[in-house]
Each structure stands twice: as structure tokens, then as C-alpha cells.
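Memo to structure team: turn this sequence into C-alpha cells by end of day. - J.P.
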Amino acid sequence: MTAPLARPLGDDPVLVEILAGLRGSPKTLPPKLFYDAAGAELFERICELDEYYLTRTELTILRRHVGEIAALAGPRAALVEYGSGAGVKVRLLLDAMEDPAAYVPIDISREQLARVASELAAEYRTVPILPVCADYTAPVVIPDLPQRARRVAFFPGSTIGNFHPPEATAFLRRVRRTLGRDGLLILGVDRRKDAATLHAAYDDAQGVTAAFNRNMLARLNREYGADFDLARFRHRAVWNDEASRVEMHLVSTADQCVHVAGQTFHFARGETLWTESSYKYDRQRLDALASGAGFSVARLWTDEGERFWVAALEVRPDV
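Reply from structure team:
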């Protein structure tokens, strides 16, 4: 979790990132701020919404094809999950895999990571559970794993879409280095589809996504001495067809000044604070991403509506 405000600025990379984003044009905030305790609870509610197809669609694909995924991973594989969260999807893999050598959950939320790791250790007594509390968007050092175990990375949930394309490539290159020459990556990927479906998924009728978005400001108020008035920012979700992404913004409803960590930022009426991008992939974009990071697309599994992919990417040893 992020450090208290009393910590020196130079020692808090998240705060450095926040302030740099607020000085930019357009102003931005890093999506990692979504997932404090309140944000995690709101996201669980989002996943239950009719409009938010992503989680249930991916789970349907995983349940239907987990045997094939486990067979592709092979016996005695070491599983490394980036952004382990509540550990729901990984249980499907651990149940299906043949004698997994280890499981390494990586997550930035220390409390949730400790709780989930403890639960999994009790459920899977023969599998070493080796949690790592870290921001996986930066380089991560993982624990020593059995030398002969094939390394399999698991990155579900379409979170790859939250990276801008150059960032996604850089992230996957780091994953590739962690996996080694015979590694495998199981990746959740949201597919391009009609704008109406995408807009509804990110701007639901009940306003849960809007609350989730504004919760970032509440977190800044609590953890970084900010004074955002949440009522003066409204949620906006926009489909950018050219860039193939949904953008989430918070729109200032008035001219106002906001203070964060002792610094002042002016917002004009109508100015937006860009909080998240969610890129959507077609096959051409997915192939380009995989190739640029040193992977090849080995298998693709999708749902009946062709809304989502679970992709198996194999390391290209020639790169």
C-alpha cells in the first residue's frame, strides 16, 4: 500500500507519479489508485453488474477450457500471477494443473495478498505459496523457484488493456524475462466490439463505476492530504475508436483549485482528469503486441459471443 504523507516525497514513487500526472496536459492519475479497500469492494460490485460482461465472460472461458490450459502448461509448472487480487480465477488453474511446483501471487495490496495467500496455503497444502507484495507495473523480483519447473505467468482480467501500447509491450517483455526460454503466459484480453456495449460496461446505469472512479479522489484526500470535492467531479466514459480504447475521465464541473501534498492544481470547468484507459484488441493488434514482446500466440479461447479472449502466449526462444 502507499506510504503515509509524512514520508519524504522522494521516497514515495506513487506520489511522484500522482504529482507528475496532475501537472500534465491532460491531467492524469495512475489506475493503481483504484484499488484501496473501498475501491476493491466497488470493483467487486461492478463485476456483478449486467453491463459489465468482462469478468463473467472470462470465467466462462476459463471454466470451459481450463483442462486444455493446464495441459498446455504441463506437469510440475510454477505459476506466477500478476495482480492476484481475490484469487478466484487462479483456483480454477490450480485445481486443473498437474502437481504445480509453486504459486507466486503478486499484488500491491498487502492486506488482501496476505489473506488470500493464507487461504490458498490452507486449501493447497502440497503447493508452496510464495506471495510477493509489489507493484507489478515496475520490475519485480520473484522468489527462487524449482529449477526444472516450467514457469507459467497468469495475467487475467483484461488488465493488459490498462497499459498504453508501448507500456504493454515493456511490461510483457519483463514478464518474458521472468519466464525464461520455455515460458508460457495465460493472458486475459478484451476484444473490440460495438461502442454501445463498451460504453455501458464503463458507465453503468446504477452509477457504481462512477463511484469507483471518484473513489480515487477520496483516496487522495485520505492518504495524500488532498482536498478534492467529489461532488464537483462527474464520471465520463468515452470510446476512442481510432485508438481502440475506452477512456475513463473525471470532469470538473466548476473552475476550482485543488491541493495535493501541499501543491496547488487548477481545474477549469469542463477540464478532465484522465483516470484509466482500457484498450480493446483485435487479432492484428494482439499479434503485434505478442510479437513485439517476444511471444507468439499459441492458442486463443473465446466465448460464444466472441467478446473476450483467454490467450496462451509462448516465449519465442529466438528473440
